[in-house]
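User: Is it possible to get a 3D structure for a protein together with its bound compound? The compound here is flavin-adenine dinucleotide. I've pasted both below.
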Amino acid sequence: MKKIVIIGNGLSAWSVANAFTNKNVQITIIGKKKSLFGAQQLSPNGFNALKRLTESDDVKNIIYEIIQFQINNNNNNKIKNLKKFFFKEFDLKYYSVSREMLINLLIKNIKNKIKIIEINKSCVGILQRNNEKFDVLLENEELISADVIIGADGVNGVTRKHVCGTTNIIRKKVFRGISNDKNKLLLKQKTLELNFSNYGHFVSYPFVKNDKKYINYVFIPNKSFQNSNEILDRLKSISNFSSVNWNEGYFYFFEDEIQTLHKNNILLFGDAGFSFEPHLAQVGNNIIEDARYLKFLLDNNNSYNEIFENFSINTCKKKIELKTISNIVGISFGINTFTKLRNSLVSNLSDQLICNFLKKVWYD
Ligand SMILES: Cc1cc2nc3c(=O)[nH]c(=O)nc-3n(C[C@H](O)[C@H](O)[C@H](O)COP(=O)(O)OP(=O)(O)OC[C@H]3O[C@@H](n4cnc5c(N)ncnc54)[C@H](O)[C@@H]3O)c2cc1C
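Assistant: Yes, that's possible. Here is the predicted structure of the complex:
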């Protein structure tokens, strides 16, 4: 029985574990338990991939349907709607999902099918014994043997360093918050909102966790406020978002383009392999899609080297395109000048054009 060791225990780790459902393997997941925060958007490609990956009807119990996408401009607390787009008019389904419920579903699903060994420790290195065998070194100097390693340990993990050496990592500030304010929930029914402001842009949408409704907020400061110490005060001065309890954090992505996601039987998966800015809400959706694709390859092939090579070629191609689109979108969201021109362009976007753009991003 092949020993698969997955390093990391976030969305990627549990998604990729589900790819092995039909294999006779022993899976070990290494990573420290963390509490999970907030929600993510689930676009049609992510939703379909999740259903096919888990082969479970339980998916519908954790999602919340979003019917409308609104783009507003918020200038000195004057809100102007620039665009309203209704997903249903184009027969598109869009959802939000609590991160905790999503990961719990993936955990429950794979644990029903395969015995998983969980090690609540950090990995500090990978040692290659020979061409086919590895040892994963834990923080307490324990060694875990592996035939196949999946690095799902994020942008700053050890697997990426082992496979690629050092890579340039870009760090950007982000603020996140959740709220269960009833008035805001009423106003925000089933709506995904993008708000431009002078300081940066806000993305907000409702989601459901354990039958309770919340709003998930993300704020990305624009370039001139990325390093500002006053940004939190500025955020509080925007009345629509002043009651949100903001948590400051960072998101990371690679500057360099990666050529391959694997080295022999070590595969980089999720953010550890390829990461880009979150403006298309596609990084997490792509993780689920990639796990579904890997499952397809695993179900139809026995050579890990071949599977990882095919996976690497096909997913890298797609992600390089997504990264380019995401960068352009990010620049237009975060500009400080020509905002009138941007707003006028957004106001004049036709629904059909938005639909075509989204379908391209989702490979629908
Ligand atoms: C602001 C923001 C909003 C987003 N919104 C969306 C969205 O709406 N839709 C969407 O599809 N995507 C979204 N994303 C992207 C998506 O959430 C992330 O890209 C995704 O969580 C990455 O998952 P991951 O498991 O690959 O990496 P991570 O979440 O970074 O997880 C890596 C895990 O590995 C563990 N680890 C690290 N090092 C080690 C080690 N040495 N040993 C053991 N374990 C280790 C960590 O503790 C962690 O649990 C968003 C991202 C950001 C920043």
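DSSP finds ten helices and 19 strands in the chain. The two ends are 37 Å apart (CA to CA).
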